[in-house]
């Protein structure tokens, strides 16, 4: 990849989102932030992704909860039915195959093939990379026409790589990191975990007489690990901020890491770079 491949056009971006919205409130804040800047985005689809939850028994159940959460949020935003919402893969990358793709994977391949290297489909991946990697395995040609930002992995300086979005499907993360496409990697611990908001300040900034703000506040409290006086990290919001060109984000080019089965990164100086 060349540096020029990472330049964002000034025109409205055709965008799809891979989201495990049932897992944490940062997905919801990211989607609200995105809709607050609809002049920048042509949001084509949102793909409901799996996650791990002690209260739900299967990947399919978590996908269904992500789907319901996305639909509920779109209704609060007043755009229910305007945006396609499709379910991602209920199987991990290693257990999947090209003959039984999910609705999200099939739809994503179709949309990607409608784009080109000169007019890419932009991808905000704020979940595990399972469906995105499954689509790349089934249709490697789409790498030429997509531009991906993935919130996943930990800082290269972090002592482990037990990032949530990487840990639940390391082989999918490896596929994405190996793909020949423009990739922006936004790690959790050591980078994005600095973007946190005290809940008490969040409450003062929300307008709790509005249904959307009530929903965000209620969900933030449910996701908080401590009291209302704790702080909440809103990782996924920064993915939207990148596509908006926010100058506060300081990125640099780094060698693409190799995701090992152990979850740790390895590095090979012959590999191309990504934006980090």
Structural overview:
With 276 residues, the chain is of the alpha/beta class. 32% of the residues lie in helices and 18% in strands. It is built from nine helices and twelve strands. The strands form four sheets. Strands 3-2-1-4-5-6 form a six-stranded parallel β-sheet, with helices on both faces. A two-stranded antiparallel sheet has the order 7-8. Strands 9-12 form a two-stranded antiparallel sheet. α2 links the parallel β2 and β3. The protein is globular and about 55 Å long. The relative contact order is 0.16.
> What's the total helix number?
9
User: What's the arrangement of strands in the largest beta sheet?
Assistant: 3-2-1-4-5-6
The amount of beta strand, in percent, is 15-25%
Q: Which parts are unreliable, with pLDDT below 50 for 5 consecutive residues or more?
A: none
Strand segment tally: 12
How confident overall, as mean pLDDT?
Answer: 92
Radius of gyration: 18 Å
- Secondary structural class: alpha/beta
Q: What's the N-to-C terminus distance?
A: 14 Å
The best one-word shape is globular
Largest sheet: 6 strands, parallel
**SSE order, one letter for each helix or strand:** EHEHEHEHEHHEEHHEHEEEE
Helical content band: 25-40%
């Amino acid at each position: 990849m060349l540096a020029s491949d990472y330049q964002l056009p000034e025109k409205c971006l055709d965008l799809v989102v891979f989201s495990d919205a049932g897992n944490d409130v940062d997905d919801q804040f990211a989607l609200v932030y995105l809709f607050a800047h609809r002049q920048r985005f042509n949001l084509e689809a949102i793909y409901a992704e799996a996650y791990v939850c002690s209260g739900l028994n299967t990947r399919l159940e978590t996908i269904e909860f992500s789907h319901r959460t996305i639909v509920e949020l779109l209704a609060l935003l007043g755009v229910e039915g305007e945006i396609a919402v499709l379910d991602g893969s209920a199987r991990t990358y290693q257990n999947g195959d090209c003959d039984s793709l999910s609705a999200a994977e099939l739809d994503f391949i179709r949309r990607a093939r409608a784009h080109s290297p000169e007019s890419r489909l932009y991808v905000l991946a704020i979940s595990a990379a399972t469906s995105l990697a499954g689509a790349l395995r089934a249709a490697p040609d789409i790498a030429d026409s997509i531009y991906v930002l993935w919130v996943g992995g930990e800082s290269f300086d972090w002592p482990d790589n037990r990032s949530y979005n990487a840990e639940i499907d390391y082989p999918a993360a490896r596929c994405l990191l190996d793909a020949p496409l423009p990739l922006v990697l936004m790690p959790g611990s050591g980078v994005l975990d600095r973007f946190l908001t005290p809940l008490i300040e969040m409450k003062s900034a929300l307008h709790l007489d509005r249904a959307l703000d009530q929903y965000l506040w209620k969900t933030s409290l449910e996701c908080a690990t401590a009291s209302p006086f704790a702080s909440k990290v809103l990782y996924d919001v920064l993915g939207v901020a990148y596509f908006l060109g926010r100058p506060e984000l300081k990125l640099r080019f780094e060698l693409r890491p190799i995701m090992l089965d152990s979850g740790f990164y390895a590095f090979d100086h012959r590999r191309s770079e990504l934006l980090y």
